[in-house]
Amino acid sequence: MNARDPSAPVPTAVEFQLDGKPVHGYEGETILQVAERYGVEIPRLCYKPGYRPDGNCRACVVEIDGERTLAPSCCRAPTAGMKVQASSDRAVKSQKMVLEMLLSDMPEQGYKWVGDDQTQQHGELSEWATRMDVAVRPALAAIGRQQPAPDLSHPAMAVNLDACIQCNRCVRACREEQVNDVIGYAFRGHDSAIVFDLQDGMGDSTCVACGECVQACPTGALMPKSHIGSQEVDRKVDSVCPFCGVGCLLTYNVKDEVIVSVDGRDGPANHDRLCVKGRFGFDYAHHPQRLTKPLIRKAGVPKDADAIGDPADWSSVFREATWEEALELAGGKLRQLRDTHGHKTLAGFGSAKGSNEEAYLFQKLVRTGFGSNNVDHCTRLCHASSVAALLEGVGSGAVSNQVGDVENAGLILVIGSNPTANHPVAATWMKNAAKRGTKIVLADPRVTDIGRYAWRTLQFRPDTDVALLNAMIHTVIDEGLVDADFLTRRASNYEALKANVQGYSAEAMAPICGIPAETIREVAREFATSKGSMILWGMGVSQHVHGTDNARCLIALVSVTGQIGKPGSGLHPLRGQNNVQGASDAGLIPMMLPNYQRVDDPGVHAWFENFWETPLDDKPGYTVVEIMHKALAPDSDPHKIRGMYIMGENPAMSDPDLNHARHALASLDHLVVQDIFMTETAWYADVVLPASAWPEKTGTVTNTDRMIQMGRRALNPPGDAKPDLWIIQQIAARMGLPWNYQGPECGVAEVYEEMRQAMSAVIEGVTWERIEREQSVTYPCLSEDDPGQPTVFIDAFATNDGRVKLVPADIIPADERPDTEYPFVLITGRQLEHWHTGSMTRRASVLDAIEPIATASMNGGDLRKLGLDAGDVITVKSRRGEVALTVRRDDGTPTGAVFIPFAYYEAAANLLTNAALDPFGKIPEFKYCAVDVRPGGTPAPVVGFERKGMKEGPVLA
Q1: How many CA atoms lie within 13 Å of 310's alpha carbon, on the beta-carbon side?
Q2: Do you know which PROSITE patterns this protein is assigned to (predicted)?
Q3: How many helices and strands (H and E) does the chain possess?
């Protein structure tokens, strides 16, 4: 999607003849691809651009002079002087015969793909038959195959093998593209068939519902249940996925103002691929619980920290209001608190689920309207420690190399991350690389699905990251594997690092981290000597009191080995939400202005005061957890937080030690919540403002790869709900700010261009017009003809002296350790189907159907010791709270640990977690606290996610 690199080599041309005319192909092209480029139509069914050509359907055969048999053009490369006939009588007769024979086996009632015309009922097969004027002879139709019954066992997809032509596109989609290894081609001859696992029903198989097979299928044998029937829609709208940070480009298919299906687009991060959330998690936008009118808390109704109601029934607590009344109360009360108690009395939580433009305006509102830097968002809860270490070490909080660069790596170290669940499409690039011979090392207390593809698995004991990483650094130094030239030219403080790791030999650390010394040394040697070693990490690294130290060790490891600043190497913290990177870039953090410029830097402070034409606070603000502490501060504290504006965040679910966080929210004098649903946080609000879901807005987001990408509005917000960008500007007006952003979509382009000026050091060349034109542009990008820099730090780091700063780290134990009363370790995280606090994904019908209940995972040994079976109810208790939920057996979870996803309010994992902070990143220790596990208990009821009244597309019953 980015501009082509002019320095890239031009592929070699091959001259040959096609239908008697001279043509030229390029190295790597097939005859079919050349023909398509020259406008010569050749039918094809098993061929799909981007997939390995298979040549099994034989619909694309051509005649080649001098050859006895016809050749499949999809997998035949042209050679110089070759004479090819795609339109000869022999070739066309064969093409038509294949189409007729395949069509003869189709059911009379098809799965319409292109239109309502009967000739178009079997997708690409019918389309090619029409274009080639092919009809099935009655005699051939009379001997058609016995049709198999449909398989409707999967919540998302219908399997209609009566329409299957066994083209194997679904097999390649599943096994070679997504590498999920579920779909196979079984049996022989007349009995051959597409099967799922060991001929299971699709819903009973290990299918992860990525839908790649649905997108690949040419006939409707595999279809989304939400879009069976005519494939005609009212409009197709190109956008970007609203879930994780991979940033997959997609297309919404809209009919009767409902998104009926989603297709992957050929974006640079996904190349058509999607996961179950991106493909089937879209209908939350149509959920009947959408907020459609402003709400105001009824007079005399108190805020009860323990009372979160049914999101479908808020009328006992709130009343509907006009926008004018709600905005006047929301903004007026915030203004009154500011003017009465001072600028430190207000705080704002912005959202990483919105656009860059919303994030930029939100932080600008807090800084210029509230008068302080008390603004934060969910990066504080996921990668704040990673960013702190990266800014300190390499001078930039963004990734050095993009995920797709794993194809150039010799070794991929995945540490503290479960990419197949949290970043599924990114995981496909890792699995693809492993199949080509790249060595994956999984380092994690939990052995997750990516471990199936790992060369070595380092299942270290929870909380021992620094011990393991320092042992690897020690090995590199001890065995003379350092890149001495790199360290001399491009690193500082190496001697201090070297001295610090002297006591961290693999032999000394093996008893601590639980990994044999020889394995540590083996992996360290391979990391140091491979052609490129790349580290990808997640919140298992960052969410500790020593999270910054964990990341410092990762920086040191790539530096001592010279594995950064080149293809297939470097540092990549995988971002959890669709715009965590962009929201952070835009300044939605308390100590940094846009582009990570410190608020207490005099030059930066002066520049922004001039740019925004208003005085600014020159002291860093409070972070998420600190703000909650300040909400409970005594009235005598001049920094007591009395009022908050929360946009699209849900701290009543996402903060640690939820009882404390909910008490803080309930104690505020004034809380304004802007969201699309009645979230757990909204129950503590004084004013609730109905906002726009991602498909209802236009704006940019920045993915984990530093790609700025365009999202376009596909729908209008329901009822009286308004675009978030409009609401922020309305609050700003009531805070006395003279903003005036002009243009369509609430002035989004004008907001972006202002943000571009504030971040000109990295996105000067990324204009709004360019993003509209190219869809995706990688930064740094400093001029309009700059293609962007997918790999950075090639010649210098972004630090003041251009060198990476190596920072020694020592073992710091978790804030809370297991003991006899609380003998287990709690690990929290996400699961594939649900995301963040579940407010969106649990209202998506397919996602909720696949994972409807809260579960905890433990290994089989621990279950036996406790007398438990999978499916039993357990109660997990910490010093802060307890939850009851169903237990699931997972032998990848280590002995003495329990894993709980944090998306379920009825078993909120963060009721248990510890609010202890990393001193540098100010991130809570979500990944480690002491708990007790006992059999039995009563799970809390699931309230409010019923789908009664849901407006959906057609579903096959």
Answers
A1: 10
A2: 2FE2S_FER_2, 4FE4S_FER_1, 4FE4S_FER_2, 4FE4S_MOW_BIS_MGD, COMPLEX1_75K_1, MOLYBDOPTERIN_PROK_2
A3: 30, 39
DSSP code of 656?
A: S
Cis status of the peptide bond prior to 780, with omega within 30 of 0? yes
Helices (H), 783-910: 845-850, 860-865
Q: What pLDDT does residue 749 have?
A: 98
Q: What angle do CA 726, 732, 736 make, to 5 degrees?
A: 145
Three-class secondary structure of residue 510 per DSSP:
helix
- 8: pLDDT confidence band, cut at 50, 70 and 90? low
Sign of the CA dihedral running 32, 435, 564, 379: positive
What are the tens digits of pLDDT across the range 336-378? 999 999 999 999 999 999 999 999 999 999 999 999 999 999 8
Residue 266: closest CA among 48, 74, 47:
48
Closest CA to 690 of 748, 730, 745, 643: 730
Give every CB contact of residue 800 below 8 A, 6+ residues apart in sequence: 395
Helix (H), strand (E) at residue 857? strand 855-858
CA distance 211 to 221: 13
Give 387-423 as a DSSP string.
HHHHHHHTS-SS-SS-GGGGGG-SEEEEES--HHHHS
Q: How far apart are the first and last CA of the chain?
A: 40
**How many residues are recorded in the chain?**
957
- Which two tokens mark 833? 């189907």
Question: Which residues pair with residue 709 across a beta bridge?
Answer: 701, 776
Helix (H, G, I), strand (E, B) or coil at 250: strand
Which amino acid is located at 103 in the chain? L
Looking at every residue in the chain, the average pLDDT score rounds to: 94
Place of tokens 């829609």: 233
With b meaning 16 or more CB within 10 Å and e meaning fewer, what string describes 313-336?
Answer: ebeebbeebebeebbebbbebbbe
Quick one: pLDDT at residue 953? 37
Neighbours of 135 (CB within 10 A): 13
Return the closest-CA partner of residue 687 out of 334, 312, 342, 377.
334
pTM greater than 0.85: yes
And the tokens for 908? 């909120």
- Predicted confidence band at 800 (pLDDT cuts at 50, 70, 90)? very high
Q: Give 331-380 as a DSSP string.
A: HHHHHHHHHHH-GGGEEEE--SSS-HHHHHHHHHHIIIII-S--EE-GGG
